[in-house]
Amino acid sequence: MKPFRHTTGVPILTAAVLLLLVAGTFHRPLLKERRRALPEAVPLTGASPVVVFTTVVLGGFRGVIADTLWLRASYLQDEERYLELVQLADWITKLEPRTTDIWAFHAWNMAYNVSVMMPMPEDRWRWVQQGIRLLRDEGLRYNPSDPRIYQELGWIYQHKLGSDSDRLHAYYKQQWSQIVTAQLGLTGRANYAALAADPARVTRIHKALGLDLERMQVVDALYGPLDWRVPQSHAVYWAYQGLQVAGDEGYLPCSRMIYQSMAELFLWGRHRWERDGQLIMQTDNRLLPRVVRAYEDALRRYDDPTLHTSYANFLAGATLVLAERGDPRRSRRAFNQLHTRYPSPQTHNGYQAFIAAQEPR
Q1: Which residues contact 80 (CB under 8 A, 6 or more apart)?
Q2: What is the rounded distance in angstroms from the CA atom of residue 175 to the CA atom of residue 74?
Q3: What is the C-alpha separation between 330 and 337, in angstroms, rounded?
Q4: Distance between CA atoms of 261 and 148, rounded to whole angstroms?
Q5: Summary mean pLDDT of the chain
Q6: Which helix (H) or strand (E) holds 281?
Q7: More reliable by pLDDT, 209 or 90
């Protein structure tokens, strides 16, 4: 009996190798198409080991698990069980690190919901800082091209720290002022040349405040002089960053944050602390042309009627505030801009008549 010979083995093996080579040519186009259709499938770079492990091992099941946790989060939110939400939201961010809604929700819960549950001011401030750091140090790492996350970060500075919506807003402002002062000095202004000559200090500023020295200079040149001790200055910084990543199409919430924050800096951007700890907030008359620039930039970008209403209201208010503060030159400048842009019966009779019409009778 003749031994069996595998006479067909070589052709089959050769064909298999050729097919593998042909299949390999489709690998890169398929990966490219997958990344285009499923942006969340692009491998994470610079991610923590926990996030990498979660996203790789769970694969497509991440979405199912995240949706289930979101349902649970909605229930906890309705029940006002905010502390439990912290851990749950942390899990969701690890499952879906490229979903801005999750980061925004998590940071808001910390800075707004959990913080107000704390009885002590220092504990409240700690949770507000946690919300800031979450967006600044983690959320932006995974979503650097999403303008919304910059706007969400700026909002905490503008509203939670910068406004008076929280009864402890003065405490937050004081704490933030101390942090900035430790990095930049007593005036809150940055000596950019001196800082550039000290790389170690630049690194410390970036770690403590999240600020990039070159970007600080750009923002300061456009909208300054900015006092970095004042929270709205940071709102302007992060909103400006959001506009840069948004590109030519812009992003109205970031532009709105810039002109609103600039208007607030103009109205009460000069902070002074009395010996008894009382915060005095005063008008910074120098910023009038910078606020005008912020509004004009927004009007060039967007066709939105609310921009015109806001701009007209600001110019009218600035006219009166500057007149009251004894700065008639800038007051007239604001009035002239108002009359040129938005002429009305109130401006038709001139500056003096406009001021007189607003005075209490």
Answers
A1: 113
A2: 32
A3: 11
A4: 17
A5: 84
A6: strand 279-282
A7: 209
Residues 6+ apart with CB under 8 A from 336: 351
Calculate Rg over the CA atoms of the chain.
28
The CB density around residue 294, as the number of other CB atoms within 10 Å, is 28
pLDDT tens track for 73-110: 666 667 777 777 777 777 777 777 888 988 998 899 88
Q: Cα(80)–Cα(353) distance, rounded to whole angstroms?
A: 53
| Helices marked H in 26-157 | 27-37, 49-58, 61-78, 82-95, 100-108, 121-133, 140-142, 147-155
Cα 349 from Cα 344, distance rounded (Å): 9
Length of the chain: 361
Q: Which pLDDT belongs to residue 273?
A: 81
Q: What is the mean pLDDT of residues 141-164?
A: 96
State the Cα–Cα distance between residues 62 and 49, nearest whole angstrom. Answer: 16
Tell me which residue has tokens 């101390």: 178
pLDDT reported for residue 82: 72
Which helix (H) or strand (E) segment is 212 a member of? none
Question: How many Å from the N-terminal Cα to the C-terminal Cα in the chain?
Answer: 125
| Integer Cα distance of 83 and 110 in angstroms | 9
Contacting residues for 301 by C-beta, under 8 A, at least 6 apart: 250, 252, 255
Name the DSSP letter for residue 271.
E
Q: Per-residue pLDDT for 38 more than 60?
A: no
Do 259 and 295 form a contact (C-beta atoms < 8 A)? yes
Distances, alpha carbon 354 to alpha carbons 294, 310, 331, 360, in Å:
25, 19, 11, 12
Could you tell me the pTM of the whole model? Answer: 0.81
SS3 273: strand
**On the CB side of 82, how many CA atoms lie within 13 Å of its CA?**
16
Residue type for 97, please? Answer: P
How is residue 159 written in tokens?
A: 């509203």
pLDDT at 218: 97
DSSP letters for 130-191: HHHHIIIIIIHHH-TT-HHHHHHHHHIIIIIITSSSSTTHHHHHHHHHHHHHHHH-TTS---
